[in-house]
Amino acid sequence: MKNVEKKNPRKIIVLGIFLATFFCSLSGQINDLITVKYLPEQFEGDSVMFGITFSIFSLGKIITMILFARLSDQIGRKKILLLAFFLYSIGTFLAGIAQTPTQFMIFRLIKGTSAFEGVILALINDYYKEGERGTAIAIFSASFGIGALIGSILGGYFLIWFEYRTTFFILGFITLLSILSISLFISNSPDQKLESERKLNENIKINRKNELKRIFKTKNFIIGLIINIFLMFCLSGVSTYMIFIILNHYMIPEQLSGAILFPIIFSYILFTLLMGKKENPINIIRYGLIILTFSLLSVIFLNFYDNKIIFIIGAGISSSALGAISPAVDNFISSFITKSVRGEALGIYRTLSLIGSLLGAITAGFIGSIYWVFSPFLLMAIIAFISFLFSWFLMK
Q1: How many domains, the chain?
Q2: CA atoms of 61 and 11, how far apart (whole Å)
Q3: Are residues 324 and 201 in contact, defined by beta-carbon separation less than 8 angstroms?
Q4: CATH number for the domain including 305?
Q5: Cβ atoms within 10 A of the Cβ of 304, count?
Q6: CA nearest to 339, candidates 213, 228, 211, 225
Q7: What domain range is 96 assigned to?
Q8: For residue 307, which phi and psi values (nearest 5 degrees)?
Q9: Residue 327 · residue 276 · CB < 8 Å
Q10: Short-list 36, 172, 170, CA closest to 107
Q11: Would you call 213 exposed, middle or buried from its count of C-beta atoms within 10 A (0-12, 13-18, 19+)?
Q12: pLDDT in tens, 70-118
């Protein structure tokens, strides 16, 4: 056991997780910026089509998340992570050859089947006990933000430097670095290997099903899940529709889009790292949600004075709150998951949470197209406030 730990210390595992998700997020952010610009030019797409392209990505994750999480319990986290990031890479490459909106959607769906989040959370829980996992989860969450931060800066220049289809091939090669990171730095926990062998026993299988039922009936688990569904709705809506506003409402030149997005995404990263390592997730969730509510409501000022500076400040505060809340909810939920059902339980939790992501982007695009351009943020403010009420009165 000691020899295995020396060869695969926990810090190396976290490094592998960080690098894999960082390269994935870097590629994804550049991809998103290009998609926003490409859809209107090539497919005459509007904000509704823009929302659908992001929602269909979440649909892909919903299709495979539970399956991947369950398989990771049985055959090990590493093999499933390699498969997941391979699908992400293939989907990225294929998007560059899409000739029709339907093809583009299908390739986005394939990319979305790379449902690795539940498996990575299970891997973190394999190596970290309660009271220790906050920092690891925060680093995992921050890796998305850091990748998005750099991607937002480079994305505008990619639109200038490269032809659309060429860009997707370049991004595909970047995603291969995620696969390399998993290969080099990730290994299955020795305890998880023993659990896999034990699960072959029929009695263990029965006990495992009973344990899953017990966890899913836990009041705090249910409340945490509902809050995370609402949170993913807001996160998906804010992150996707924000890009649409910057490029299509304020008409920011592509090469400057990164400078506009920088403070917004940086605030997400900063508060993820600052608050994620604190092992008091309930208070972080509560205060983060009320801050999120008021920051989203600040778009009301744009009805009187439509100024991009006001929008950036409001989006930055919202991003800070989302950055603090996201790892806190994952940490809160993790405290209810026992080792024997870790992968599958977290996979189901993440899959159900994706319902929020699936609805968030498409709802924001649809509402923004038929009502006031900033009205989606008001809807998300209501959702955030309802989440706050759940956390304040029901979460213990």
Answers
A1: 1
A2: 27
A3: no
A4: 1.20.1250.20
A5: 8
A6: 211
A7: 2-393
A8: -125, 135
A9: yes
A10: 172
A11: exposed
A12: 888 888 899 999 999 999 999 999 888 877 778 888 888 999 899 898 8
